[in-house]
Amino acid sequence: MGVVPALVRAAFLVNAVYTESAREHGLTMQQGQLLCVLMARPYGMSELGTTLGLAKSSLSGLVDRSERNGLVRREPDRHDTRAVRVALTAAGRTLAETFYAETCRRVEKLPAGLGAGERDALAELLGRVVRDNDVPVVFLELR
Amino acid sequence: MGVVPALVRAAFLVNAVYTESAREHGLTMQQGQLLCVLMARPYGMSELGTTLGLAKSSLSGLVDRSERNGLVRREPDRHDTRAVRVALTAAGRTLAETFYAETCRRVEKLPAGLGAGERDALAELLGRVVRDNDVPVVFLELR
DNA sequence: GCTTATAGTTCGCCTCACGAACCATGGGCG
DNA sequence: CGCCCATGGTTCGTGAGGCGAACTATAAGC
């Protein structure tokens, strides 16, 4: 299989797994992504927009809904009255962590047919692609 | 980077590229996927549902919109009066092919930082993952 | 101080996705 | 043959997601 179809179909696969995992945690994929991004630290709205690749108007809605569900909180920015910092609530952090862990578990299974060395090689190659293309940190590297 | 974050973030990247390419062709990602699937042959609705991972009610709408845009056609199934075969119209095929080609071109660029051998290795590894997980053919292998 | 840029929100419009309810035909099976 | 149920699809109502345009308010530069 060529590298292009492999990439596209693998993306389709990961997407499905991610969406399914989110769904079982009462989240949509987008809400899950938001939580995962915020696990690292609070973000401003604009910053979130570029990270998630969304227009600011789209983001307002996403944060609204997540806030309504008690997962996220808008805090005033100390240094800029206009700005807002979006942060996880306690409930949001808890949910984010279990969702993150469960999603890792499932994605981990996808390359189960590969040997340990092959998994490492895949991680290294894909990691380079991610790095070279400046993909935002939509999914943490926990250690 | 671990294999899980690499997979998730690479999926995010491919998604963004795919969506952007679709957008510039006047399509949504879902409509683009539909066209790409139908490039191979006509499909029944149920068959399309399992291929794209959608509930049948979701599919009805997607096909409706694509039909309204003149990209797709519902034909009666010769052997089953209930069933329907969804096929590309001439316009749909043309658009599908240019969208497919352009999307390939863009996805091709993502691993530009890799050597030829590395790209082959990536294709081989991801191909195995795709194969092992029975990912539907949402993106053709043209030759 | 005035002007322009930046941060966010709101609005209207469309797409997407789902489940539930529904209709029609097809395929057994007694 | 006639009945029952499975299968293929559509419709409907609801809610999420996404965008651009218009708007408000504060920040920053000159």
Question: Could you explain the architecture of this structure?
Answer:
By secondary structure, the first copy, chain A, is mostly helical. Chain A has six helices and three strands. Chain A is globular and about 50 Å long. The first copy, chain A, starts with a helix and ends in an 11-residue tail after the last helix. Chain A binds a DNA duplex (30 and 30 nucleotides) through α4 and β3.
List the helices and strands and how they pair.
Two copies of one chain form a homodimer.
Chain A: H1 3-24, H2 29-38, E1 43-44, H3 45-52, H4 56-68, E2 72-77, E3 80-88, H5 90-109, H6 116-132
Antiparallel strand pairs in A: 1-3, 2-3
Helix pairs in contact in A: 1-5, 3-4
Chain A binds a DNA duplex (30 and 30 nucleotides) through residues 28, 30-31, 44-46, 54-62, 64-65, 77, 80-84.
* Lateral arrangement of strands in the main beta sheet of chain A: 1-3-2
Mean pLDDT across all amino acids of chain A: 97
Residue share in β-strands of chain A? 5-15%
Radius of gyration of chain A, whole Å: 17 Å
Largest interface, C-beta within 8 A:
A-B, 50 and 50 residues
Mass-distribution shape of chain A: globular
Q: Assembly state here?
A: homodimer
**Mind summarizing the main beta sheet of chain A?**
3 strands, antiparallel
Task: Say how many strands of chain A there are.
Answer: 3
* Element-level helix/strand string of chain A: HHEHHEEHH
Tally of helical runs of chain A: 6
Helix content of chain A: 55-70%
